[in-house]
Amino acid sequence: MNTIKYIRNPEVFMLEQRECEQFKALDLAACELEAIPNKIKDFKNIRDINISTNLLSDLPFNNMPTERLLKLTATNNRLKNLSSGINRLKKLRHLCLGKNMFEEFPKEITELPNLRKLFFHDNFITSLPSDIGNLKQLRVLVLCDNKSLVELPEELVKLDKLQTLDLRDTKVTKLPKGLSKLSGLRQIKLSSKYFEPSELEEINSWFPEGVVTVDQYVQLDKLPNNSQHFLDTLDDDDEFKVTMQRLLNWSSEPSKKGHSRDL
Q1: What are the structural domains, with CATH classification, of the chain?
Q2: Nearest to 176, CA basis, from 195, 193, 158
Q3: What residues contact 44, with CB distance under 8 A and at least 6 apart?
Q4: 3-state secondary structure of 82
Q5: Which of 2, 71, 115, 195 could disulfide-link 48, Cβ–Cβ 3.0 to 4.6 Å?
Q6: Measuring CA to CA, which residue among 25, 31, 108 is closest to residue 70?
Q7: CB 111 within 8 A of CB 135
Q8: What is the chain's pLDDT, residue by residue, as a tens digit (263 residues)?
Q9: Rounded CA gap, 209 and 198, in Å?
Q10: Other CB atoms closer than 10 Å to residue 210's CB: what's the count?
Q11: How far is 177 from 172, CA to CA, in rounded Å?
């Protein structure tokens, strides 16, 4: 078996076309890219592309090597939509588009016949298209931190191979009851703050014990003003101190005021 070879920017721009063909993984993360370099088309045997943490507002697939691509990671960009052509990635198994600016779920994603893992967390979508049920090979669907997401289509029950569904910190409060018939479903992640206890109890009754996990929330703005002083009196390896210090540090960020998942 050939060893997978990785290459990272800026070395990519110094290669001859024939040299590019030996690489199977390309890392262009955190390179301040505003566009995908044309050079990418020379990586004809690429399986894994990481273009996370850049300044991309679009993903053009017309010049991307698509024949063998299995994994595409484009987390933490400025993506609002996808250019046509993503359906050319017929072998793609792992797609990560989290931490972008999508307000609508790109319907083209539902045309990827071999997609197994879809990470679409921390965007701004309000719903999913009914065509989501076309992703027959999907095992993992991560939608957490889409704070405007309020409903799920009934077609979700067509995902026969689904194993994990992450809905933490969304406003979804109603699950398609047919999910209980998905024999492979092993984990559903929910947040407590949008559910009544009776609703969570009913959802739990649909599944075997342990399938549904529920985040508990700490009201950060209710912490005492002298919390930091109190923590400073504890040993650095104190488990309570470590947990609460993480909460206090997290809540001090301007975008994180209010609630936080229990760490």
Answers
A1: 6-217 (3.80.10.10), 218-263 (no CATH)
A2: 158
A3: 20, 21, 65, 67, 68
A4: coil
A5: 71
A6: 25
A7: no
A8: 344 565 566 667 788 888 888 889 998 998 888 988 888 889 999 999 999 999 999 988 877 887 899 999 999 999 998 877 888 899 999 999 999 999 999 999 999 999 999 999 999 999 999 999 999 999 999 999 999 999 999 999 999 999 999 999 999 989 998 999 999 999 999 988 888 889 999 999 999 999 999 986 544 444 556 666 666 666 666 666 566 666 666 555 554 444 444 43
A9: 16
A10: 9
A11: 13
DSSP 99: S
Contact at 8 Å (CB) between 75 and 53?
Answer: yes
Cα(117)–Cα(166) distance, integer angstroms: 12
pTM over 0.90: no
Query: Which residues are CB-contacts of 40 (< 8 A; sequence separation ≥ 6)?
Result: 26, 46, 49, 63, 64, 65
DSSP code of residue 49: E
- Tokens for 36, please give them: 């995908």
Helix H or strand E segment including 175 = none
Task: State the Cα–Cα distance between residues 101 and 128, nearest whole angstrom.
Answer: 15
**Amino acid found at 182:** L
Tally the residues of the chain.
263
Report the DSSP pairing between strands 217-219 and 164-166.
unpaired
User: Rounded distance, CA 84 to CA 54, Å?
Assistant: 20
What six digits make up the tokens of 173? 């409060």
Kindly state the tokens that stand for 43: 């990586």
